[in-house]
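Backbone-to-sequence.
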């Protein structure tokens, strides 16, 4: 159904209430927010100024100590209530996320799963992550050494438009549980998902100023948040990530950067072809390919290449590309005109330089202004933009390889290193290949969900795909300052006891050092 005839479910009065709940102290410039299905502006949001962001951070800074003083179990209870509210209110969340991002409902639902899974994990593990740890002391028995973890203060979260529910809140949850206050700056294109989630967190018991959302442009509101925060968790493009890192570095502010990818999928000769084709469909076309961990490069062993390609093309042709606020369509719209332009220009460039399009390759204005067909290409070579640059659309290049060593070399031939997958019926072989691929996550016999949804394990990018990690202990501890407190119970490790000549002390210490090297309990 063409979109103009598709009634949006999200209520415009609710959107207007959300827009006016963004605290700004004067009338600000307004940024229009578009519904990608139709290209129609659905609302405007305030372009917060740096003064607005400073004021929000100041409020967060004032609220943070009281939030940190609460027992961690109380903070965890609030996050578990939030988990339930997200499930209860899923329909409105899905409607709003779809309205402002143009994604298929099944892709929005994946965000609900992710928010709930991350909330559950961190709510149940926060006390363990914050538990003071005993470490080996300088001198056995004589030194009692413990590590305490304190919140950093105010965490700034800057998020992109592609997963507006997940990426505005899942990185904030561990920060909140660690006792920080959080200020989120969502993408200009998708502010309403973040504002709705803010309301649910408040309903769940997180104080208003401990979790705030500021809207506005990256160049002003985003930069101001980087300037003012005690830790910056940024998710977005690699070029923006470099700017954020530079600005944070100048202030000696720590940051984590979750950036772009040009992710490879490798199909080994013993793979189950049917499962690998299903994995490729999911890995290439979920969220219309606008997924940082989506595949844009498929490498398939030559012995199964023809059959794999034939089945991939048939399955791709069968995908339902259409707008719809119900479950059903497989692939939704791109986010807007810039994204459509990038996808079209990458495909045109590849075709003009000799690539072949096996299916797709065209925009579909009959469905909505930014729809683009799921596209499979072969014959992509290095001089084409599509070979190396992130397309961030439903376009994949397929190539064959003859040796596993070649496949690993092809997979690693990229500036990026975010996500990969390996398909084989032999788990050991899969792990051996996976360990040689320079990506922060590698999935065996799955596209991306096995590693992503293992929220107990770190996720993030190597090379130009990022710095630091989300998920697991790593995604929690980054929001804390480690403090070592060591009690010396007798004597000093580095000074002779009173009345003992320096020479005697030095001799005794040499004996001790030699002995300690041999003692199994001293490391
Ligand atoms: P983007 O870099 O343009 O914007 C991301 C966010 O940064 C937005 O909120 C934007 O307003 C803000 N911003 C822009 N300039 C800024 C500045 N100078 N200072 C501070 N903030 C600024 O990215 P996008 O187009 O919204 O998202 C798409 C990109 O995000 C893709 O490259 C994708 O791969 C990447 N991404 C990565 C992950 C991951 O986990 N690695 C996840 C999702 C998306």
């Amino acid at each position: 159904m063409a979109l103009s005839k598709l009634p949006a479910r999200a209520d415009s009065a609710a959107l207007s209430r959300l827009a006016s709940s963004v605290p700004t102290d004067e009338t600000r410039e307004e940024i229009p927010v578009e519904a990608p299905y139709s290209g129609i502006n659905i609302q405007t949001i305030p372009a917060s100024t740096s003064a607005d962001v400073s004021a929000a951070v100041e409020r967060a800074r004032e609220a943070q100590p009281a939030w940190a003083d609460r027992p961690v179990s109380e903070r965890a209870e609030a996050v578990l209530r939030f988990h339930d509210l997200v499930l209860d209110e899923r329909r409105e969340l899905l409607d709003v996320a779809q309205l402002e991002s143009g994604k298929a409902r099944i892709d929005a639902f994946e965000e609900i799963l992710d928010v709930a899974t991350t909330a559950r994990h961190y709510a149940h593990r926060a006390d363990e992550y914050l538990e003071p740890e005993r470490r080996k002391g300088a001198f056995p028995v004589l030194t009692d050494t413990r590590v305490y973890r304190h919140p950093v203060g105010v965490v700034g979260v800057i998020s992109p438009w592609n997963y507006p529910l997940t990426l505005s809140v899942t990185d904030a949850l561990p920060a909140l549980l660690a006792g920080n206050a959080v200020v989120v700056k969502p993408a200009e294109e998708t502010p309403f998902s973040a504002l709705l989630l803010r309301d649910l967190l408040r309903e769940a018991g997180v104080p208003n100023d401990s979790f705030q959302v500021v809207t506005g442009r990256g160049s002003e509101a985003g930069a101001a948040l980087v300037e003012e925060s005690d830790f910056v968790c940024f998710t977005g493009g690699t070029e923006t990530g470099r700017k954020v890192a530079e600005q944070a570095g100048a202030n000696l502010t720590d940051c984590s950067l979750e950036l772009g990818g040009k992710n490879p999928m490798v199909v080994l000769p013993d793979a189950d072809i049917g499962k690998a084709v299903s994995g490729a469909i999911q890995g290439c076309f979920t969220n219309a390919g606008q997924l940082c961990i989506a595949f844009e490069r498929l490498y398939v062993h030559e012995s199964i290449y023809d059959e794999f390609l034939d089945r991939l093309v048939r399955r791709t042709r069968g995908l339902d590309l259409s707008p719809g606020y119900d479950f059903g369509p497989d692939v939704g719209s791109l986010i807007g005109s810039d994204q459509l332009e990038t996808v079209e220009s990458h495909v045109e460039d590849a075709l003009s330089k000799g690539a072949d399009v096996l299916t797709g390759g065209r925009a579909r204005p009959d469905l909505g202004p930014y729809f683009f067909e799921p596209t499979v290409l072969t014959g992509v070579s290095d001089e084409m933009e599509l070979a190396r640059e992130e397309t961030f659309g439903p376009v994949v290049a397929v190539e064959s390889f003859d040796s596993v060593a070649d496949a690993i070399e092809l997979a690693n031939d990229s500036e990026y290193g975010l996500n990969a997958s390996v398909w084989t019926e032999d788990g050991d072989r899969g792990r051996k290949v996976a360990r040689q691929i320079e990506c922060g996550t590698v999935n065996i016999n799955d596209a991306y969900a096995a590693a992503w949804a293992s929220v107990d394990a770190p996720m993030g990018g190597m090379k130009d795909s990022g710095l630091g990690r989300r998920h697991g202990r790593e995604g929690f501890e980054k929001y804390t300052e480690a403090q070592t407190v060591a009690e010396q119970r007798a004597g000093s490790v580095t000074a002779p006891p009173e009345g003992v000549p320096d020479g005697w002390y030095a001799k005794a210490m040499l004996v001790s050092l030699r002995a300690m090297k041999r003692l199994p309990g001293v490391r």
